[in-house]
Amino acid sequence: MTTAIALEERQPDRAEQLQQLRRQMAAVSGKVGGGRTVADRADEVLPTSESLLPVPESLAGLLPAGLPRGTVAVVSGARSLPVSMAAAVTAAGGHVAVVGLPDFGLLAAAEMGADLSRLAMIPDPGTDPVEVAAVLMDGMDLVVLGLAGRTVTATRARAVVARARQKGCTLLVAGGDWQGATMRLDARVHGYEMTAGHGGAPVPGCGRIHRVRLSIRAHGRAARSRVG
Q1: In this predicted model, what pLDDT tens digit does every residue of 124-168 receive, in sequence order?
Q2: Residue 224 belongs to what H/E stretch?
Q3: Which helix (H) or strand (E) holds 88?
Q4: What's the gap between Cα 149 and its chain centre?
Q5: Are 143 and 119 in contact (CB under 8 A)?
Q6: 126 close to 146: Cβ distance less than 8 angstroms
Q7: At residue 207, what are phi and psi to the nearest 5 degrees?
Q8: What is the DSSP string of 18-57?
């Protein structure tokens, strides 16, 4: 079952809010890990010595080996891209936190093969979602951060990037900008594949969407454009 973590709106200061978040993360660890920490479980399944995280099929041509750990990537365009990336990591046994994205598609993630028991949702991180994301890096393989239109300057980003590298956690930024990001991915819907109705051939405009085809452009290390 997906874990939902909520920060109380009326805390005396940010330090207490973050302490509350740490306590909730510890409680989550006890529920799904038999008393072991989230970091312990992540190390067992996706060791930080493995420098790459798995990626969905749509990114296989861009990142054939996987997504580098400890990096920051900015995604824009189709919302299905961060959902599919979270699905790929949890399906492989990793742990993912989603911060500041209350409309994150859990049903779509499950249909993509996600293990929802390895997914923590923090839909309302308060006034400083970046700080909350930084706390969650301790024990997560991937943190998906919604910025709601904000821009994180290079000065503010520096400490968070250093923490991501130290913890071996990848930060995926959506709905905003992160100056100095290692990689930028832009996904646009290129087409749809429909299931056939009543055992026949697919009919345009009819049936159920089986797959969304994305046109993805990437800027970063050894990246190239691809339609998938």
Answers
A1: 988 899 999 999 998 899 999 999 999 999 999 999 999 999 999
A2: none
A3: helix 80-91
A4: 17
A5: no
A6: no
A7: 95, -165
A8: HHHHHHHHHHHHHHHHTT--HHHHHHHHS-TTS-EE---G
